[in-house]
Write a structure and sequence with these properties.
The structure is a single chain. This protein is of the alpha/beta class. The chain has two domains: 54 residues; 232 residues, Rossmann fold (3-Layer(aba) Sandwich), CATH 3.40.50. It is built from six helices and twelve strands. The strands form three sheets. Strands 2-1-3-4-11-10-9 form a seven-stranded mixed sheet, sandwiched between helices. A three-stranded antiparallel sheet has the order 6-7-12, with no helix packed on it. It has a two-stranded antiparallel ribbon with strand order 5-8. Helix 1 runs antiparallel to helix 6. The radius of gyration is 24 Å and the shape is globular. The two termini are 13 Å apart.
Length: 308
């Protein structure tokens, strides 16, 4: 009779279907919750608290770098990813950039945000009384230079050019998942220019000071290092003073995507494929694979014995 083999075939198909669904579910999940160190000369603790409340799945710890530069050992033992930014130029930026670059070269991702541009060595905004100090080795692996000015300001140094995300420029990617709009109403954004080889995933509608596209979301891989750039101030919601809190759109989605991508060392587990390499499974995924293979083998063996 042919009914028995047919039944076995249907059951095997069902098992393999369940197997495929389980693998898909695993692939769609973040690899792990990242421990994110938030490094800044100002509003580090406040930004960490704001992100902890608004972005699920990761932990955030503020690290004030105004007077103290953390060691590489302390960063690698405490964090899976870093957010580096500033709010006002500060003398420690060079040393902070050096240790952040060393952190990135261990294979852990670094995210940079506005006003990182103000202390980049090519920034020369005449409205800023204190000149840029530079970010040391981090400038060798970051995604963008400035446009010579950075965040556009008036004569007193107050940002004055609102930015709106160019929706037509958005490239489908884990870093842009769920992002349809973003606005820096009071201008705490922009002033960058992507380096050759940087992957730009969205631009601001407004051009930079050179009349070129101004990247809003971008990243760059250099050897083991991955640096993600989000061209808007991460402390927009928590800073005190004129212009803070004045942003629109998918602000927390953008930052959440950045930390998800950083948590996986810039190797997406969901969304459009960026690599032709075979994806690896987590320990749980490998265990599930082995269990399902063994279950199929055991089930088929029993049926073969029963048909004798």
């Amino acid at each position: 009779m042919k009914s028995a083999p047919s039944s076995v075939g249907h059951r095997l198909a069902a098992v393999f279907g369940m197997f495929a669904c389980c693998l898909a579910a695993l692939a769609a999940s973040p690899a792990h919750a990242a421990r994110v160190g938030v490094l800044s000369d100002k509003y580090a603790v406040e930004t960490a608290a704001d992100f902890a409340a608004k972005i699920p799945g990761h932990t955030f710890t503020g690290v004030d770098t105004f007077t103290t530069v953390p060691t590489l050992a302390s960063l690698t033992s405490s964090f899976d990813a870093l957010l580096v930014f500033e709010d006002g130029v500060f003398a420690n930026s060079t040393a902070v950039g050096d240790v952040a670059a060393a952190f990135a070269n261990t294979g852990r991702a670094v995210v940079v945000g506005t006003f990182y541009d103000q202390d980049r060595s090519d920034s020369a905004n005449p409205a800023l009384v204190i000149p840029a100090h530079g970010w040391g080795a981090l400038e060798g692996i970051d995604p963008s230079t400035t446009d010579g000015i950075g965040v556009r300001t008036d004569g007193t140094g107050q940002p004055n050019l609102p930015r709106v995300l160019n929706a037509a420029s958005i490239v489908p990617h884990p870093l842009t998942q769920g992002v349809t709009a973003l606005g820096a109403t009071s201008g705490f954004a922009g002033g960058n220019e992507a380096k050759a080889g940087t992957i730009v995933l969205a631009n601001w509608t407004e051009l930079n000071a050179h009349g070129l596209p101004d990247p809003a979301i971008a990243y760059r891989v250099t050897g083991a290092a991955c640096v993600i750039q989000i061209g808007i101030a991460p402390d927009y919601a928590v800073g005190v003073g004129t212009g803070y809190g004045s942003f629109t759109g998918n602000f927390y989605t953008v930052w959440g995507n950045a930390f998800d991508f950083a948590a996986n060392s810039c190797q997406p587990l969901s969304g459009p494929a960026l690599s032709t390499s075979v994806p690896t499974l987590s320990d749980g995924g490998l265990a599930l694979t082995m269990l399902l293979v063994l279950a199929v083998a055991f089930s088929q063996r029993r049926r073969l014995r029963g048909s004798r």
